[in-house]
Structure formats: structure tokens, C-alpha cells
Amino acid sequence: MVKSVPYHPFLIEQLKDSVYAAGYLTLFLNEQEEGDLDVGIFPSALKEVFEALGEPNMSADDAKLHLEKLDGLLSQNGMATIYALANWLNTLGLKLSVAVAEDEREEKGSVSDVVLVEVAKV
Questions:
Q1: Using an 8 Å Cβ cutoff, are 29 and 46 in contact?
Q2: Could you tell me the CA-to-CA distances from 61 to 55, 57, 74, 110 in Å, in that order?
Q3: Domain ranges of the chain
Q4: Which single residue of 5, 18, 50, 104 could bond 54 by disulfide (Cβ 3.0 to 4.6 Å)?
């Protein structure tokens, strides 16, 4: 019989690949846009990505401060939250992007691939 692998350690190992981590966060954002996601899950996803990409590269004190920043920025409202999240992700080697909505693309007959536009370059 095949033994199962505990989910959390497996997930963290997968998230060490920054491309996978970016796709993981994008999945949660897309589900939230469609109204299919409880807003409490996205902060957990950010913390999992941090555990994979940030913790191994930071001292314990720096890691604690970075997580405290996340808690603070997620409690903010308004435009400052977007820039703060972009900066927070940048520390992990990720960036915040905007994609063309598929239904808009089909109506206007634009390119077949999703075009990403960089929102903030820090």
C-alpha cells in the first residue's frame, strides 16, 4: 500500500518553487474575484508562501517582523494596502500583476494568451 505524504510539508516543498508559489496565490485571488473563496483563506496562503520562500532566507527576528507586517497590511483598507502587499511580496521574490479578464478578451477578439501587466515595480 502506498503511504501518503503529510499535506503541509508537501505543500511547503512545492511552494519553494517561486513559479508554483505565484500560481498558488493567483489561484486564490481568482477564486476570490469569482466569489468562491472565503477571504480568510488568502492570508493563510500568503503565510504558507512566506514559510516556503521567506523563512529559510531570513533570521528568526526578520521572519517574525515580516509576518507582523503581513498582519498589519491585511488589516488596512484602501490603495495603501495594494502597495504594501506588492512590497511584501517583492521581499519574497514575487510581484503583483494584473491580467486581462477572459470574458473581456473574448468580446474584443484580442490575443489568445493572458497578457500580464506589472502593477508596481519596487
A1: no
A2: 10, 12, 20, 48
A3: 7-94
A4: 50
The SS3 assignment for 98 reads: strand
Report how far residue 95's alpha carbon sits from residue 73's, in angstroms, rounded to the nearest whole number. 16
* Residue 77 neighbours by CB under 8 Å, 6+ apart: none
What pTM did the predictor assign? Answer: 0.73
Locate cell 470574458: which residue? 103
Of 25, 31, 36, the C-alpha closest to 86 is: 25
Number of alpha helices (DSSP H) and beta strands (DSSP E) in the chain: 6, 2
3-state secondary structure of 69: helix
Question: Measured between alpha carbons, how far is 118 from 96 in angstroms, rounded to an integer?
Answer: 7
What backbone torsions phi and psi does residue 28 show, to the nearest 5 degrees? -65, -40
For the chain, report the end-to-end CA distance as a whole number of angstroms.
50
